[in-house]
Amino acid sequence: AHDVPVLAIGGLTGDQIPALLGSGATGIAGIGCFVPSSRDGLTEFVHERVRAMRLAFDTAEVVSYTRDPDR
Q1: HSE value, Cβ hemisphere, 13 Å, CA-based, for 25
Q2: 38, 23, 29: which is closest to 8 by C-alpha?
Q3: Per-residue model confidence (pLDDT) at position 17
Q4: Mean per-residue pLDDT for 21-30?
Q5: Least crowded by CB within 10 Å, which of 6, 22, 32, 56?
Q6: Phi/psi-derived region of residue 29, left when phi > 0, alpha when psi is between -120 and 50, beta in every other case
Q7: Which residues contact residue 8 at a Cβ distance below 8 angstroms, ignoring those fewer than 6 apart?
Q8: Whole-prediction pTM value?
Q9: What CA–CA distances, in Å, run from 61 to 5, 30, 64?
Q10: Concatenated DSSP letters of 3-53
């Protein structure tokens, strides 16, 4: 999976991010992890969660999304 970016999908929570990073995931695809259990403060919650996920998965490495090095 080192040649192809791997996304974690489904049933994700914020406290699982360290384990996902440790297993080599390059990102996540999820809906539930961005929605709070209460609608109170929805906008702020989503903005903070997105910011935290970006910081967690931020990397200085170049990730190729193709197998062709010339693309």
Answers
A1: 18
A2: 29
A3: 83
A4: 85
A5: 22
A6: beta
A7: 16, 20, 25, 27, 28, 29, 30
A8: 0.57
A9: 12, 23, 10
A10: SS--EEESS--GGGHHHHHHTT--EEE-SGGGS-SSSTTHHHHHHHHHHHH
